[in-house]
Amino acid sequence: MSTGLLQQLAEYGEFHDEEQGSIDVDDVFTAGNSVSPSDTALRVAPRRSSRFGVWVAIAAVVLTVLLVGVIPLLFNNDGTPPADTVVTTTLAESTPTTLGESVPIPGTWSIVPRTEGGLGQGVIDSVAAGGPGLVAVGVNAYPEGDPAMWTSVDGITWTQVPLDEEVFGDGGPVSVITAGPGLVAVGHGVWTSVDGIVWSRVPDEERIFEDAWLTSVIVGGPGLVAVGVVAEGEGDNAAVWTSVDGIVWSRVPHDEATFGENHPSVDLSVFNVTVGGPGLVAVGMDWSGSDADAAVWTSIDGLTWTRVPHDEEVFGGSGHQAINGVTAAGPGLVAVGTERSGRQQAVVWTSVDGLTWTRVARDESGSLDGGQMNSVVVSDTGLVAVGWIGSVGGPNSDAAIWTSLDATVWSRVPHDEEAIGNGLMWGVVNTDRGLIAFGSDGTNAAVWAATAEN
Fold first, then answer.
1. Helix (H, G, I), strand (E, B) or coil at 365
2. Residues 324-345: b if buried by 16+ CB within 10 A, e if exposed
3. Which of 69, 87, 313, 376 has the fewest CB atoms within 10 Å, counting from its CB?
4. Considering all CA atoms of the chain, what is the largest pairwise distance in Å, rounded to the nearest integer?
5. CB proximity list for 366: less than 8 A, separation 6 or greater
6. In a 10 Å sphere around its CB, with 0-12 CB exposed, 13-18 middle and 19+ buried, how is residue 139 labelled?
7. Is 0.90 topped by the overall pTM?
């Protein structure tokens, strides 16, 4: 969601926008919450071949994802898994979140002031509860840079954590959650930490992590489930990994019908995963043809996966579509993303069970026009989605926030240039400190906080 995200997609040509003129594809898409803007835009995973990774989502990327706040009951107090115990996700039908009966109150959003030694340059891809309060991961320069991490007690004052180059190398995490020994982060590898300050890298076993880019991780399945992309042959395939404790990982066996064929013309990417539907639901994009289509996968236990059959009216259409974030809410599940067909617009999908999906119709208010949604969460007053309006990093791009009571009717929070700025929101999380959005503002890492209105 991140969450790192803007990889070059120049080989895919340009789109023509009636109002903005010609725009490169890398200025169009990003995949929601767990991958970073430092890595791509249509949420494109890092490329190894001509299409290595159409993903990032959102660039991200970049959580939804249960990036915050779910301290798993899967572990002992010391963070280790119970002896001889494998915990699986409860498979009962997901219960829709009650969103209330009145118009959602968006609250007042403002960008957190930059302070010396605080956020600095870069992009924040993901935020989770942990360490001294909150932990953020991303990169220290935009659009590309070295891995970076920050901690905060209150979500307002942030401190950058000195990182050990031997532990992180040149590839860092883009998604972080509360799990394992304390925190687990994934990206070009897997890292764990007790306090959010000192990190250890899980050994990179070639058979498990070779040519892999993990974009999102959640608590679920046998303990933890991570999704992402693997470059195999000359194509990019969707992939899933599981772990009981966050330290020892296994890759789910590759099934071509589900995750893609090892062929240069096949390009599948998973950007985000959540608990819901039959057990787990993952979302992303299929760019195996001339256009990209939104894609969804489901699993009962995190170990066996099935791709939801493609429905052209729901997941396709003219131009490109990508789902960047998903969460359990509304009628069962709510997914957000973007479409580029002549012009850009934010898109929302809903599902009762994760198996059958409906695309929310574009409303007359135009609240979704020109936008890209990267992440969605449930707040005390309804659903909140974040992203931006306009081309990525363009002079007319503004950070954007949308709210909805029922996931079908959306309103965009009026933009306040002074309070919010013209940054890019890659993700949003609901913490005990309130709603926190994150991403970048120009070349600087950025955090936005919402203050409830009474």
1. coil
2. bbbbbbbebbbbbbbbbeebbb
3. 313
4. 61
5. none
6. buried
7. no
